[in-house]
Amino acid sequence: MLTLLLPLTEAADEAPSPLLPHTAEIIFGFVFLVLLAIAFAKVVVPKFEKAYADRTAAIEGGMNEAKAAQAEAKAALDKYNAQLAEARQEAAKIREDAREQGAQIIAEMREQANAEAERIVTHARAQIDAERTQAVASLRGEVGTMATTLAGRIVGESLEDEARQRRTVERFLAELESSESARQAVGTDG
């Protein structure tokens, strides 16, 4: 560098150039630049490196946290999907059980309704038979009384004697039943 400065100094003795600064200014500028570079390297560069390292660590930490959060979210989604599938299966099972129970209840209700209907029909038949028997007995008594009264008027004597009255009624009803049986036999033959 000195070899470069020598031709400049020789030229400086001749006449000062407006483009070239003085040698003392060049040396002072060079020293100041070296001191500034040393100060910059000792004070500013470590702060920049520390800020860069902190920023890098923060970014890497954020990326790691993001990856961990993403993995956690995926695990939660998988768990949610598994629970949802399980809930759907359970709901399907509950629906199927409800259908089976409904069918069973309907079958039981039909069976009970059939049994109740059969009981009602049996009871009604028994009641009809009892009422028919009662009506026949009542009619026999009335027919017997009317028959004895009529027979007494026809014969001209009183049939007030109870034993005689009963025999007459029994004979009349027997004749009546035999004539009705004969009429029915002729009606089915014809």
Automatic annotation (TrEMBL):
It is found in: Cell membrane. Residues 63-104 form a coiled coil. The keyword Amino-acid biosynthesis does not apply. Keywords: ATP synthesis, Cell membrane, CF(0), Coiled coil, Hydrogen ion transport, Ion transport, Membrane, Transmembrane, Transmembrane helix, Transport. InterPro entries: ATP_synth_B-like_membr_sf, ATP_synth_b/b'su_bac/chlpt, ATP_synth_F0_bsu_bac, ATP_synthase_B_chain. It comes from the Bacteria. It is a single-pass membrane protein. Pfam families: ATP-synt_B (PF00430). Its main location: membrane. The chain crosses the membrane at residues 26-45. Gene3D superfamilies: F1F0 ATP synthase subunit B, membrane domain. Belongs to the ATPase B chain family. F-type ATPases have 2 components, F(1) - the catalytic core - and F(0) - the membrane proton channel. F(1) has five subunits: alpha(3), beta(3), gamma(1), delta(1), epsilon(1). F(0) has three main subunits: a(1), b(2) and c(10-14). The alpha and beta chains form an alternating ring which encloses part of the gamma chain. F(1) is attached to F(0) by a central stalk formed by the gamma and epsilon chains, while a peripheral stalk is formed by the delta and b chains. Component of the F(0) channel, it forms part of the peripheral stalk, linking F(1) to F(0). NCBIfam families: ATP_synt_b, PRK05759.1-3. This is ATP synthase subunit b. It comes from Kribbella pratensis.
